[in-house]
Amino acid sequence: MRLRDLQDRLRTHIRGRIGRGELTGSGLSQQAGFQQGHLSNFLNARRGLSLELMDRLLKALEIEILDLAEAGEIEQRVLRPATAGWQSVAIVSAEDAARLPRFTPAQVTGTLSFRKTFLRRLRANDVCHRGDWLRFVALEMEPRAARGLFSRSAGVAMLLIDRHYTSLVPYRQQQPNLYAVRFQARCAVGYVTQAGEHLVLRSRDPQVPVELARIDRSRGYSDQVVGRVCHVAVEV
Questions:
Q1: How far apart are CA 69 and CA 98, in angstroms?
Q2: Beta-carbon-side half-sphere exposure of residue 230 (alpha carbons within 13 Å)
Q3: pLDDT of 88-140, one tens digit each?
Q4: pLDDT at 25 over 60
Q5: DSSP 226
Q6: What pLDDT, in 10s, does the model give residues 29-84?
Q7: Of 19, 105, 143, 161, whose CB is crowded by the most CB atoms within 10 A?
Q8: Which structural domains are found in the chain, ordered by start?
């Protein structure tokens, strides 16, 4: 990756996080030891940064250069090569899927392969401005949780998550979406609706209690949505 490309991607990353309300330009400037005007000039492409100043920004943002790589570049470095017509999707922890735009090799526990034609026809509905996030990830769901959603005989479930679908608008008319969402300090899977200032998480099993999570007013409900579950593979 050339230095100019790296700086352009760093600008995109910072603008995206500012747009999502994760940080402010003034706060980032102070943390990195920059003058705010210096950072503003960089974000508006009026000037570049030395390697030393870029390193200070990366540390303040708590990211690495790999986090700025494009999806295809990450697949070349992290994921096993997929055969023609297939795309490898990283299996990661639910916690990492909820908070990280991209993943290091140590955070990827395996891969699943999906037909590229299938992934391309999936519609996104990103109201959380996650264009810089790796779109598809796979999560492993333990048998106990899977049985509450799919069937009493279900074993481990592998879920394909579209992190560019953060809207609560149904993907198919009159059919509720299944989501991975951040609830308290964990990532949960279920059917999600909004009730006033809360997100409501429901399971298909009526014996499983309904859960509520208060929506952060400064960010909105979509910040708590990890993504839409768009494919499920269940062991039986």
A1: 19
A2: 25
A3: 999 999 889 988 898 888 899 999 999 999 999 999 999 888 888 999 999 98
A4: yes
A5: E
A6: 888 888 888 888 888 888 888 888 888 888 888 887 767 766 555 555 555 555 67
A7: 161
A8: 3-67 (1.10.260.40), 70-234 (2.10.109.10)
Q: What is the pLDDT of residue 156?
A: 78
- CA dist 146 and 33 (Å) reads 47
> pLDDT at position 141, please?
83
d(CA 220, CA 218): 6
In angstroms, the CA 232 to CA 225 distance is 18
Residue 187: which of 141, 151, 128 has the closest Cα?
Answer: 141
Residue with tokens 């697949």: 75
CA atoms in the 13 A half-sphere facing the CB of 31: 14
Residue type for position 204: R
Q: Convert 122-158 to b/e letters by CB count within 10 Å (16 or more is b).
A: beebbebbbebbbbbbbbebeeebbbbbbeeebeebb
Separation of CA 52 from chain center: 29
Please report which residue ranges of the chain form alpha helices under DSSP H.
3-19, 25-32, 36-43, 51-61, 71-77, 94-99, 116-120, 143-149
- Least Cα distance to 88 among 100, 97, 78, 79 occurs for 79
170-196 residue pLDDT tens: 999 888 999 998 876 678 888 998 888
* Rounded distance between C-alpha atoms, residue 37 and residue 31, angstroms: 14
Residue with tokens 């996104």: 124
Bridge partners, 141 (sequence order): 157
- CA dist 222 and 33 (Å) reads 32
